[in-house]
Structures are given as C-alpha cells and as structure tokens.
C-alpha cells in the first residue's frame, strides 16, 4: 500500500530530569522518586507537555444538543489544575449523519458546539495545560432511533439486519468518502480552534475499527478481505487529516484489539500482523499511537518469541518507532467489567500504586500513560501520585459517572 511522507513526529526528545518543570496549576514540587519517570517533560508537536500523564477519553453524556456546557468547561479545567499533562476529550462526533450513537454526547461540528469547545480550549490553556479532541464516528454501534436524527441507521463496512430490519447500512464509496472528509474537516477545525493536536478514534468497535475487524468487515472490494485492504479506510482517513492540518499538529491514533462486545477480539493475531496494520498508518501521518487495553501490563502476544512478555504498547513502539500512549486500568486494582458503564449496580475499585507503570515507561515500553476512571472521582489524582500520597486518592465508583466531579 502506498503511503504519504510522514509528518515530523511528536517525540520524547526532552532530556530526562529528576525534578520536572512545574505542573499545570500546582507550582514546582519535588517528585516521589518511585514515579519520577511519569513526571518528566515530553515534546508534543509545537509544545512540551509538563509530564507523561494523559487523561484518557471517557464519554460523559453531559452535552445536551451536542454542545459542551459550562460544567464541561469546568470539568476539563479542573483536571489541568490537578496536574495532568495532556487531556484527551471525550469522544466528540464528526459531521456525518450516523456519527453519533448515544444521548447528549458532544458534537465537533456546528457553530454552537464548536464555540463550546473553543471555551474548553481557552480554559485549559489559561491553566497552562494541553488538550486534544477525540474525533469519533460510532459506526455499527449506532441504531435507528438515536439522536440527532432517529431515522438514520448505523453505517459500517457491511450491513447488519435484525428482525428483518437493516439497522446498519453497508457503506458505499460515496459514504466512505464523506466520512473521510468529515474527519479531515474536524481535524482542521480542531487546529483552527487552538487545540494542541487531534486524536482519531480507531478502537472499541467503532467505525475505523469496524473495517479492521474481520467479523464486522465482510466486504469484497478494496476495503475488505486482506489485512491491507481492511486497513485502507483508516490509512485514507489519516492521510486526509494529515493534509488538512499543519505538519507540526500532532495526529494521535487510538486502536485496540478488544471490542465492547468481545474482550477477546483481535484485529492482529501476531506481531507481524500488527505491523501490517500500524506501519501504513505511521507512514500516512500518525505521530502518536494510543494503545487501548483492559490491563496495560499484560502480554499482547504471549506465544510470540517463545513467550514474549511485551505489552501491546511495547510492540507498537517497537514496530512503528513512534511514541506510544499506554492505557488500561491505570491506578486501579481491578479491570473494568462487561457492561459496567451500562448497568446501575454499584461498582467500586480502590487505588493502587503506579510504580510499575513508571518502571515500564523508564524501560521504554511506552512514552505516555493514559489515566481514565481514576481521574473521574479524584481530579487531584496526578498531584497525589506525584507527592507520594496515593493513600489519599479518592477511589472510583459509579457515582462519578453520573456527574462531572470538579
């Protein structure tokens, strides 16, 4: 597959230091030695992140009509004050009729929604932080009846029929072209609004991942069949986004093996197959790979190389040479469970130490560490980790999903 010349990569070229620069909103402070690698600066496009901690994208359903509210602005501002180096927003939908699949998720198109995001960006920057949007199309996860237009079905690589009704439409070439253009426009708008980069959501059974996975991609044209063909849609999106933004505007690409409906799913069965997916994406213009796993520390291919202990993040960095964000149950003593965000049963996990994550980063397994649920209940999680006060962390529970803790 032909590839475009990659843009300059966001890299980890900053010189390691024992005590980093002041964290956003916290002032200079000595760092607990056990986690010092997490608090080193990191070069990211035009800027340098204060540390290696990244707020992972988490859907909050708090934007009526797709427009971020004052509460959303305060929510992101508060995580910068709590010491996170880079924020990735919740998934925000591109300008396509079938992009959305859930109530009250924010849009990334239209005057009102973009004005709301501009206020988020300005608030984060005023606190000295950095932020990128996660650009999202839910693909086959959408069903008719969902806002904003209940009559629109899901869109995906192949049709899905339920009870005699087509609930997911097989995308035509015109549909594919429209989605690619919408991703590119969203990225251009992100740069125009002042965001510090953009993330493409290519994970978890959403539209880009739908094309990767054999079970959902049964096409027989140039976008289906071989692994290279199933990667083509993602590559074309990355290439279009790269052309729509400046060379030093970082493109982050999030991918996963697991799906929301199948935690054992794989888009790549071996490291070699993973390379066949990721190498073209890197060539098309991805600067940073965001590797989503249930538990970031688990071996990705335990049968490879005589029993390799390498994680999916470590394999990704080795295969592409690009910086990598690792994520998956960071700061928790339990991994997420099937349906835990959907059911109303109480679910609580307690904080655990992040020393092993700091050691893995120091080894070079990855460059940045994504933190999700641990930041929902406790906006000061990063400061407490930095100061060696992990025992003071407020544990995550489901109640944090029902409101924006500030």
UniProtKB/TrEMBL annotation:
Residues 38-332 form the NADH:flavin oxidoreductase/NADH oxidase N-terminal domain. Pfam families: Oxidored_FMN. GO terms for cellular component: cytosol. This is 2,4-dienoyl-CoA reductase-like NADH-dependent reductase (Old Yellow Enzyme family). PANTHER family: NADH OXIDOREDUCTASE-RELATED, OXIDOREDUCTASE-RELATED. GO terms for molecular function: FMN binding; oxidoreductase activity. Residues 1-28 are annotated as: Disordered. Residues 12-21 have a biased composition (Polar residues).
